[in-house]
């Protein structure tokens, strides 16, 4: 029987939207806890200064009539609207809540593919935009490689350098995630070729490099993993193996692909099985490297995501990453860690790899999304030698660096690390409990911080759940073939987790 889904976030029950509802399940959703004595009540506002709505409010199905109308107008112009879900009223969106063009208000646990760090219209972010001292930064976009502003070195230091991964103090900003990965790899090729040659380019190098010929354009390869995603430029696509739609019809580079571990969860209950699985994949990494060497196309870089995200939230253990780092050192290749989706505290540490205790930092750490500006940190030895070798018109976006500084300050001020850890614990436990109650639908609940996911029976069911949750007022995402993925902002609190879990449970009940 259709009942109502209620929002509990203001400590009062408020009718939000008609949905099949199991009253017992609501109380169960509120009992997710690691340690009952320390647990804040799910209704408690642990960031009281964050002004936001007290719950979802749905007035139409999504997309509503206004969004559908806007879709037609956009299609008239771009002819590329098939992925557009609905249009956003950014002025009305607040905190963890996104408001659409039809006035529907949804709890956003996806945040524009994990890219809005501290919620919509955060006052600290708005203050940067409103500050007259920043006017010239917003008004004048420089060619950073030629003429950065006199304030730029300090801006980089205050923002990016202040959160640099341990041992990596050099940073290069870029335009997007793909562009960052692409340029980190370019620095690798230059470094590798300089080592190989033992000096500056030869005359033959110079003469062949504009003709797509060796030795000026060496035959190197980069090793990536099955299921990975690193972006959509041609080199990045050659390293991305998560979705046919990304790659079909595009000529890519024939580079080696190793299997990525398919682990069993929870990780601590399957240590032996998971170690065997990781060793199987590492053995294949070795074989691929040997094969490339014989082909005369050596592996000069190994690239891996800290958690495979687009490919379906696949985790590996610190052991696996340490071994990859060892292998890359052994063969004289670079070790590139893609933290585009995991960086900026999403996993409960500022960088996911901080939790692994690597003996030394990765050679490159790529970032974007929640960091607002894209780019990569790198070790000194990879510094490009010579002018104009890592360059494009904008090479970054200074206003985004200013916004990032405000975000970092807010993370520190509000101790958002604790919030992410606490909410992540609630979320994962909730998913585990729901998976125990709906084993015919959910499996493999997993996560670090709020970077969580759970698998569904098949793609159809996954998409159905995402759509039903959206119509019920909660926006989540999907990844891989059949995972529900959760990518909330860093201000997502246990009270928001409770709303999400209620909504998920009501959706599962109604399937
Ligand atoms: C791990 C990872 N790397 C790279 C990218 C590419 O980033 P962008 O879309 O900004 O090019 C993404 C995007 O989702 C990503 O998740």
TrEMBL record:
The gene is LOC110981991. It comes from the Eukaryota. Keywords: Aminotransferase, Pyridoxal phosphate, Transferase. The keyword Transferase applies. It comes from Acanthaster planci. Pfam families: Aminotran_3 (PF00202). InterPro entries: Aminotrans_3, Aminotrans_3_PPA_site, PyrdxlP-dep_Trfase, PyrdxlP-dep_Trfase_major, PyrdxlP-dep_Trfase_small. One of its GO terms (cellular component) is mitochondrion. This is 4-aminobutyrate aminotransferase, mitochondrial-like. It catalyses: 4-aminobutanoate + 2-oxoglutarate = succinate semialdehyde + L-glutamate. Belongs to the class-III pyridoxal-phosphate-dependent aminotransferase family. Its cofactor is pyridoxal 5'-phosphate. GO terms for molecular function: 4-aminobutyrate:2-oxoglutarate transaminase activity; pyridoxal phosphate binding. Transmembrane segments: none annotated. Signal peptide: none annotated. GO terms for biological process: gamma-aminobutyric acid catabolic process. CDD domains: OAT_like.
